[in-house]
Each structure stands twice: as C-alpha cells, then as structure tokens.
Amino acid sequence: MTAADHPSVDPEGPVAVLVNPTAGRGRHRGLLTPVISRLAGAGREVRLLEAQSADQAETVCRTAVAGGVAALVAVGGDGTVHRALQAVAGTSIPFGPVPAGTGNDFAGDTGFPPDPLAAAEVIAEALRAGRTRPVDLARLTGPTGPPRWYGAVLAAGFDAIVNERANRMRWPRGARRYDLAIMVELARLRPRRYKLRLDGVPYELDAVLVAVGNCPSYGGGMRICPDADPTDGLLDVVVGGRLDRRTLIRVKPSIYQGTHLRHPLVSSHRVRTVELAAEGITTYADGERALELPVAVTAVPGALRLLR
Fold first, then answer.
1. Given a cut of 60, is residue 26 above it in pLDDT?
2. Average pLDDT over residues 11-35
C-alpha cells in the first residue's frame, strides 16, 4: 500500500459498521438495533455496511474506508472481524469488534467484554474520548497474490485440515458437519513433514498440529497459543509433533485451558517471523480459509488501532 492509497481517519466521517446477520447462527440478530443505538451515542453518524458473502464484506469495508470514515466497527464473530481487518490493517483508522459470533476470540483476547451491548458501549466511549490502543496483527504472505492480515491464530495442521474437509461437505448442516469432519480426519491422521524457518533458523520435523498465534485463542475459546500476547510484537508458534490418534484425542481437551504445552510432544516458540511449508495443507486464519502452504507470517507491531 502506497502513501497515495493509504486511508486515513476522516474526523468528520461516519462510523462504518459491518454487520454479519448470520453470525452466531443469527442468535444476536435482535441486538443489532440496541448495538447501533449505543454506537450512535458517541455523537457520530453510523453507516451500516451489509454483505451477503465474505468477499462482499471485504469489498464494502474497503470501499467505505477509502471513501473516508472516522472508524470501522465489525458486528459478528472472528470471521467478520477478519474481513474488516483487511481494510484497516496498517492504517490509522480505529477499529472496534462487537462480539456476536460463534467464535469471538479476537475480541475477547484484546480485552472487550463478551456481551455485545457492553462491547458496543466500550467502543462508543472510546469514540467519545478519541481514545485508541495499538495492538499487533500478523501479516500472511504466499508465493503469489496480495498479503492477508489476521488478528487471532493461523491454523496450519490438523484443525486446518478438518476445516477444509468440513467446507467441502454438503451434509450434514451446522455443527454436526464439523463433528463428522473431525471423525473422518482422525481416521486418516498421520504426521506430515513440515519445514519451518523461525526468525531465519531452519527446522524440519513431523507434526500433526501447527498454529501461529498473535492472540492465544481460536475456535471459540481453545487456547492453542496460551502465552501469545497481541502487544509484544511477537508470534507464538505451537507445534504438536508425532501425536497418534489416541494421544491427540487425549490432548485436545487440554487446549481449552492451554495446558497442552505440558505434553512432551508439544513445543512453543516465540518469534518475529515464521516461514512454514508442508504438502497439501490450506491454512485457516481467524477461522477463515486463507492461503495454501508455503506461507510466511510476520508480526507487525501496532498495526491496528483498537477503540478500547
């Protein structure tokens, strides 16, 4: 992004609000009006941005930001936040997440209350006070194409493979599809050969779990990178080595508490840059389908200004 097309804050502009009406399977739909009311309490015009697809969500956010806004707010889960981040990452435009999805890991890990109305009030108060706080983001690049940004965690192992399987399935619907995808991939589980470069130091190993965290959590509260801190300018890389099926099933529940790091086959590394390669894996960032391996991930300190 060049200086000519780098968006900046329009102090007289509206607060653009990206709304995902299907977030959280629609259970927060009735809260949209009071959320908007609280945001309007900051004394700014509120402009709703509605999208029918993930790609459209990115487009409307980029268009709004390019046209001049005072801030961007995302009402939804981590997927909605992820799409909004593509428009504001690396800019001075303030951002606020209102957690209203199935997984709200980025909002929770950056200090927002879990209640959508309370989070909206925090954002409105920050708008009134003109207050923002810098947090880091991760910049994801592949051999071709533009970079992607993410706020929470990049999955590049078993969980990414399960997501890819679930997204290809047409039946069953809802959470049962994901459960079935887990069963199918557990039956096919095998360690894969990874090539890592951590701050330039090469490693080659067999693993079934690989995650690169800017924040600790993904998947609705699983603390896969429990020591990750989105204000330290670093990434946490967690690797689960040659875990067999039975061991993975035993270890998986401990991820919610972050105690899986105690297992002898699980290791954690804190770095500024990660290069990651393996055959046949598509990564998932903030729960959204991202880039196929190989990729490079870089911690970008203060890449986002949070309304908190």
1. no
2. 79
Q: Residue 288 and residue 280: Cα distance in Å, rounded?
A: 17
Report helix, strand or coil for 172: coil
Coil, strand, or helix at residue 56? helix
Give the Å distances, CA to CA, from 229 to 60, 89, 111, 265. 30, 18, 12, 23
Check residue 4 and give its pLDDT. 38
Residues 49 and 2: their CA atoms lie apart, in Å, by 25
Cα separation, 74 vs 170, whole angstroms: 28
Model pTM above 0.90:
yes
Residues near 230 by beta carbon (within 8 Å), at least 6 away in sequence: 109, 110, 135, 136, 151, 214, 215
In sign, the C-alpha dihedral spanning 235, 221, 38, 67 is positive
Locate all alpha helices (DSSP H) within the chain, ordered by sequence.
32-40, 54-67, 78-88, 105-109, 116-129, 158-168, 175-187, 245-251
C-alpha–C-alpha distance, residues 152 and 4, integer Å? 29
